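Course assignment 3, question 2. Fill in each field.
Student: A.L.
Task: Predict the tertiary structure for the chain below.
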Amino acid sequence: VDKPSNGFPNFHKDTANWLSSFYNLFYYMDSIALSRAIEVNPTDPWSQFEPQHFEAFRKTRDLVIKKLLAGDTFGVAHEGRFGSAGIDKDQWVKNQVETVIPFLWSNIAGIPGKSVDFRGEEVRAGGSDQNSTFLVVFQELQAMLKNPYLVTEFYPAPNNQNFVAYYYPDVYHYERVIKKLPASLVTKIRSYPEPLLRNDTVLRETLNRE
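Answer field:
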């Protein structure tokens, strides 16, 4: 077996890299989606996900872990508790929204260092099957329905499966997160008729970002 300069056989190095990449899949996808990927392609479960997005996620997670091991907590926690020494709650929230979250988003998006704005439009997740939906098994559907942030639409499909599409929270699909939103924001959204929201792009994007 060829040996690199560090003295470890390439076999060991390749195995460690494979295990590290596979371990990242546990954080990248939910357990049901990962189980399905292994069932469909046990030798290459990565092929069931968008490789460029997974690679950006893997690099970001590795970067964060290295920073954490070096003592950089990103100001998220201090001595095992949320918060940061020397700043109050409002400053802590401001740091998360303006620094930490954009850092993570820009790196996961594959554009580190560039500004990543909060999305202003609705996001509908579907696929290329009937009526632009995903085809999922019963267990996957149940996981989606339990997600407290998603508005899920589904229709029966053959073989005890379902056609599914889902929406992330926006001005049209915020019912499941309504208790997590400021009452003033809910009142503001409800004050605008849907036709106005559909036609006024600036208003719609502003409300979504709020």
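Instructor remarks: Helices lie at 10-28, 31-40, 51-69, 89-108, 138-146, 183-190, 194-199, 201-209. The CA atoms of residues 72 and 168 lie 31 Å apart.
Grade: pending
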